[in-house]
Design goal:
110 residues; alpha+beta; 12% helix; binds zinc ion
């Protein structure tokens, strides 16, 4: 896995910020998730760099009513703002090869 935190959306080309979404619920795993690089007042996530290492950004979901950490900026998932969000979803079920100039979806080992 790459540690690069700043890349472009495979689908719409927008800049995105990758952070490991920490999910503390039982049975859930933490995995890399794309976020918009700009803070958004509608966001329910905040990002932080453990130990100050920005190459290992982590993200947390803040529930309604939960207190926000001091100074934390609100972020939104890129899936919420991506104009091609439908493509993201569709891609998982029926991969298609007609997106020109894009590398085919990676096959992650199970
Ligand atoms: Zn996108």
């Amino acid at each position: 896995m790459s540690d690069s935190t700043c890349r472009s959306c495979r689908s719409c080309g927008a800049a995105i910020l990758w952070a490991k979404l920490i999910d503390t619920r039982p049975g859930k795993t933490s995995k890399p998730h794309p976020f918009d690089p700009e803070p958004n007042p509608k966001g329910y996530y905040y990002l932080y760099a453990p130990g100050g290492d920005v190459a290992k950004l982590e993200a947390r979901y803040v529930q309604r009513g939960e207190a926000w950490p001091e100074g934390a900026k609100r972020r939104v998932s890129h899936f919420a703002t991506c104009p091609d969000a439908e493509e993201h979803r569709r891609e998982k079920r029926q991969p298609r090869g007609r997106q020109m100039g894009l590398t085919p979806p990676r096959k992650d080992p199970p």
